């Protein structure tokens, strides 16, 4: 019947080129980016509408997906579509400067903000987990995280007093949508790395996309390969199929000379972390049959996993939590020294946040890689002094395999991003680029997130859990002319642990787009500087003074 067909998975791929079927580029771009999130080249499990990060979805159901696409095609240039946890719930008359889409995903009132409550509501079909860029339609595949991971490992090298990771061995876990960037980020920094994943298909996918050099099911062989690479000062990434809760303690026991340890298994969601004693084949069925027992077992395994990480630190390795909440889960699993190592933001990223720097990204609606190469050159010309940026653009041009619509990411800050946006808009207007460009960012960002185990861990003034900031960011981007704005709960670190906002703005070559881009791309990173000024960071104060940010009580 037609009802059955409406609920069936289908293969989605965004249209390419400069002809639109929607009535504005804002609506067309939102539609294409929703579709791009579900492109099998981009999404981890497109049949379930899951884009990345455990269960981060782009739409609540296939019926909701169809209704969003239909509504965006019909939407007038002065109307706004509201999306509640992946379902289109209303269209309102607004004005041309207003966003074409406003999105709220996974938000729950504080006392109810738990995974069991969330799952109950999800089971009833009332809510969806939006992760960060899954439900806000600006995920660009593994490249998105590659740049941040590259920056982080470069900072780790500096903290060890080194120019690069040459001659070091890194151990990590989780080769999924985000974690899969780790091996390439380490080899781009010239190091050797061993990455553990229980699911062989994830490692195979990373090899196929050239994010991982090789993988094996044989731990002895894997260890021999990476230790030889470390000793020879060669860049090499090796995957090994296994459970991190077993492999990490085993490597510790063997005394493998590991310098750096982290992890990106889906620990934020205990049902997305495989406990010892369960096979990959039985994973889903066992988690569904008894989620509470599965959670208890998975936390116990995380305790063993983190206990080994702490022991590596005790033995002298640099160890950090890579934003997946594994310390908190391991603590719940009964290991009381779980927080002995720091999160990566206070350890390596915060100084960049003080300048409003963070993962700025854009995608070419033409589908033509040449458009991205032209924007790469434009960015290099706009920022001639930034050596790290130039190194990244060069390496990304060589090594990054585009997934879905061609896209690029780089870290730019306050009073930088709008220059890029205006330049891209001119290039669209002049015909140098063959179709509009969408410009957005991750929610892992300086001003738009409250996440006490990650982006706002250990804030100077203790304001880690205050979530007024992401709300102000979303309201300001809405007032500034963004094409779509989203407000989410629980991304990255899980339900109950974060509140964050996103924006995407389209450069369609028009004068109106130029005015909107200038405001949004100045104001959005400006909230990051403001947040860090307010928390008492000296460097943020200098940036505000030098670059002219108006902070009334500075
Ligand atoms: P994902 O679900 O796509 O991948 C997780 C991987 O972990 C899977 O391949 C799975 O097979 C593997 N895994 C699960 N249990 C395992 C175990 N016991 N041993 C070994 N492997 C196991 O998730 P993702 O998108 O890659 O995200 C990973 C984590 O990183 C999430 O918790 C996410 O919230 C977090 N994250 C961090 C950042 C950051 O900037 N640091 C950014 C985004 C996401």
Topology:
Layout (H helix, E strand, L loop, with lengths): L1 H6 L17 H14 L11 E3 L3 E2 L4 H13 L4 E6 L2 E7 L7 E5 L9 H9 L19 H17 L9 E5 L7 H8 L3 E6 L2 H9 L5 E3 L2 H14 L3 E6 L2 H11 L5 E2 L21 H7 L1 H24 L3 E2 L6 H7 L11 H10 L4 E7 L4 H14 L4 H13 L7 E6 L4 H13 L7 E5 L7 E2 L17 H13 L3 E6 L9 E9 L3 H24 L3 H10 L7
Helix pairs in contact: 2-3, 5-6, 9-11, 10-11, 11-12, 14-16, 16-18, 17-18, 18-19
The structure holds nicotinamide-adenine-dinucleotide.
The site of nicotinamide-adenine-dinucleotide has 34 residues, from helix 5, strand 7 and helix 9.
Describe this structure as you would to a colleague.
Helices cover 43% and strands 15% of the residues. It has 554 residues and is an alpha/beta fold. The protein has a domain at 143-342: Urocanase like domains (Rossmann fold). Strands 3, 4, 5, 12, 13, 14, 15, 16 and 17 form a 9-stranded mixed beta sheet that branches. A 6-stranded parallel beta sheet has the order 8-9-7-6-10-11, sandwiched between helices. The longest helix has 24 residues, at 291-314. The model has no long low-confidence stretch (mean pLDDT 96). Bound molecules: nicotinamide-adenine-dinucleotide. Nicotinamide-adenine-dinucleotide binds next to helix 5, strand 7 and helix 9. It is found in: Cytoplasm.
């Amino acid at each position: 019947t037609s009802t059955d067909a409406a609920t069936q998975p289908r293969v989605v791929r965004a249209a390419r080129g400069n002809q639109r079927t929607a009535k504005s580029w804002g609506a067309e771009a939102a539609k294409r980016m929703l579709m791009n999130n579900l492109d099998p080249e981009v999404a981890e499990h497109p049949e379930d509408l899951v884009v990345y990060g455990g269960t981060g979805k782009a739409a609540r159901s296939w019926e909701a997906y169809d209704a969003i696409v239909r509504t965006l095609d019909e939407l007038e240039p002065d109307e706004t579509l509201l999306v509640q946890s992946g379902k289109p719930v209303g269209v309102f008359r607004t004005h041309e400067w207003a966003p074409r889409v406003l999105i709220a995903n996974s938000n729950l009132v504080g006392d109810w903000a738990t995974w069991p409550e969330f799952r109950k509501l999800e089971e009833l079909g009332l809510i969806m987990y939006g992760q960060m860029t899954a439900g806000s339609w600006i995920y660009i595949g593994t490249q998105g995280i590659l740049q941040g991971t590259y920056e982080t490992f470069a900072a780790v090298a500096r903290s060890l007093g080194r120019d690069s990771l040459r001659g070091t061995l890194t151990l990590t876990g989780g080769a999924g949508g985000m974690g899969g960037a780790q091996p390439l980020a380490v080899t781009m920094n010239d190091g050797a790395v061993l990455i553990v994943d229980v699911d062989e298909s994830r490692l195979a996918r990373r090899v196929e996309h050239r994010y991982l050099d090789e993988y094996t099911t044989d731990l002895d062989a894997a260890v021999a390969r990476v230790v030889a690479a470390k000793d020879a000062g060669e860049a090499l990434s090796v995957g090994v199929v296994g459970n991190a809760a077993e492999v990490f303690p085993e490597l510790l026991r063997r005394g493998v000379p590991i310098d750096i340890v982290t992890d990106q298994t889906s620990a934020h969601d205990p049902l997305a972390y495989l406990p010892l004693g369960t096979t990959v084949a039985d994973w889903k069925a066992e988690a569904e049959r008894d989620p509470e027992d599965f959670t208890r077992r998975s936390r116990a395994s995380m305790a063993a996993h983190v206990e080994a990480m702490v022991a590596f630190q005790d033995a002298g390795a640099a160890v950090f939590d890579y934003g997946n909440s594994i310390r908190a889960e391991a603590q719940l699993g009964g290991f009381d020294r779980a927080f002995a190592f720091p999160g990566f933001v206070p350890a390596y990223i915060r100084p960049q946040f003080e300048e409003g720097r963070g993962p700025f990204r854009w995608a070419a609606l033409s589908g033509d890689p040449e458009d991205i190469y032209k924007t790469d050159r434009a960015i290099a010309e706009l920022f001639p002094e930034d050596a790290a940026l130039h190194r990244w653009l060069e390496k990304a041009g060589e090594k990054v395999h585009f997934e879905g619509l061609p896209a690029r990411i780089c870290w730019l800050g306050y009073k930088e991003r709008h220059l890029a946006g205006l330049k891209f808009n001119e290039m669209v207007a002049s015909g140098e680029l063959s179709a509009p460009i969408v410009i957005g960012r991750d929610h892992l960002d300086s001003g738009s997130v409250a996440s006490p185990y990650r982006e706002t861990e250990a804030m100077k003034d203790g304001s880690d859990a205050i979530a007024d900031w992401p709300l102000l960011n979303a309201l300001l981007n809405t007032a500034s002319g963004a094409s779509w704005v989203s407000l989410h709960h629980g991304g990255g670190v899980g339900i109950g642990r974060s509140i964050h906002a996103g924006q995407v703005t389209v450069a369609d070559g028009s004068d109106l787009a130029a005015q909107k881009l200038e405001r949004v791309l100045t104001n959005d990173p400006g909230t990051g500087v403001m947040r860090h000024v307010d928390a008492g960071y000296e460097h943020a104060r200098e940036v505000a003074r030098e670059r002219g940010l108006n902070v009334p009580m500075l």
